């Protein structure tokens, strides 16, 4: 679903962790792959449009047991909320880092292990907090917080 460079982000990062196959019939990926064999689907967008997002939603409705990863250049809080409400297992914004892909790999491995056991327990998986999040609130920011909120408004 990319316009600028086809498969660029997936090929650059994902191949380090996953065996990647590109779908030639995006309207029916289940016709090309055995999706019961531990596979997931990835929808990569530069700039998502309604037909592309509708296709992703319809695919998830047809294949509710298949994890879907969404990768996009254009992002917004609304788009991320929409994606999670439509049951994507992760939402990544380009450029993707190895840490992003490693998190997806670990989560998919945990999902696959549960499915292999034919159980439906609660998944005990904790995603790492991103490294750019500060350890604690900085005192200077705490004092400036009212002024910063004023400027933002």
Salient structural properties:
153 residues, 3-stranded parallel beta sheet, 3 strands, mainly alpha, 5 helices, 9% strand
Cα-atom Rg, whole angstroms? 18 Å
Strand content: 5-15%
The side-by-side strand order for the widest beta sheet comes to 1-2-3
Task: Estimate percent helicity.
Answer: 25-40%
Low-confidence stretches: none
Mean pLDDT: 76
Output the number of helix runs: 5
- The coarse overall form would be globular
Secondary structure category: mainly alpha
Distance linking N and C termini: 36 Å
State the gist of this model.
By secondary structure, the protein is mainly alpha-helical. It has helices spanning 8-13, 50-62, 77-85, 98-116, 139-152, and strands spanning 41-45, 68-72, 90-93. 40% of the residues lie in helices and 9% in strands.
Report on the architecture of this protein:
With 153 residues, this protein is mostly helical. Helices cover 40% and strands 9% of the residues. It has 5 helices and 3 strands; from the N terminus they run H-E-H-E-H-E-H-H. It has a 3-stranded parallel sheet, covered by helices on one side. Strand 1, helix 2 and strand 2 form a beta-alpha-beta unit. The model has no long low-confidence stretch (mean pLDDT 76).
């Amino acid at each position: 679903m990319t316009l600028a460079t086809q498969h660029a982000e997936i090929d650059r990062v994902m191949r380090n962790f996953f065996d990647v196959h590109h779908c030639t019939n995006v309207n029916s990926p289940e016709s090309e792959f055995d999706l019961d064999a531990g596979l997931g689907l990835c929808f990569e967008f530069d700039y998502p449009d309604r037909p592309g997002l509708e296709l992703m939603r319809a695919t998830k409705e047809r294949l509710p047991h298949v994890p879907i990863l969404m990768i996009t250049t254009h992002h917004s809080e609304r788009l991320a909320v929409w994606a999670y409400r439509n049951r994507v297992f992760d939402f990544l914004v380009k450029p993707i880092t190895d840490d992003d892909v490693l998190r997806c790999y670990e989560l998919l491995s945990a999902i696959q292990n549960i499915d292999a056991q034919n159980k439906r327990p609660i998944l005990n998986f904790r995603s790492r907090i991103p490294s750019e999040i500060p350890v604690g609130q900085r005192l200077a920011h705490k004092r400036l917080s009212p002024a910063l909120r004023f400027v933002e408004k």
